[in-house]
Amino acid sequence: MFNMMDMFGKVKEFQARMQEAQQSLHAVSETGESGAGLVRATVNGLKQVVKLEIDSDLIKPDDKEMLQDLIVAAVNKAMENIEPKIKEHLRKSTAGLLPDIPGFDLGSMM
């Protein structure tokens, strides 16, 4: 028999775990690179750039435009790479709390 109070309890626990998971996304990170590793950007699960590494060979006034393009490419790659990690982090944090509902995507709750 369906127990409404149990369901409310599960929803409340799910909300608490989801909030904890979202707050801990700063610890999830991913790095993207461009220019065969000459530029590397690291982002966290909050989609913030936390580290930017530039090979010293690239730091030349004449190559400013190329360097800018490589930085943008590295940051975009890191942002693309972090998406699956965010979804997995949220999935693990809330595993077993709610029934498996087809089409229910925790990543859309961000």
From TrEMBL:
Family: Belongs to the YbaB/EbfC family.
Pfam families for the chain: YbaB_DNA_bd
InterPro entries in UniProt: YbaB-like_sf, YbaB/EbfC
Protein's cellular compartments: Cytoplasm, Nucleoid
Subunit structure: Homodimer.
Tree of life domain: Bacteria
Biological role: Binds to DNA and alters its conformation. May be involved in regulation of gene expression, nucleoid organization and DNA protection.
Record-given protein name: Nucleoid-associated protein GCM10023187_34420
Key words of the record: Cytoplasm, DNA-binding
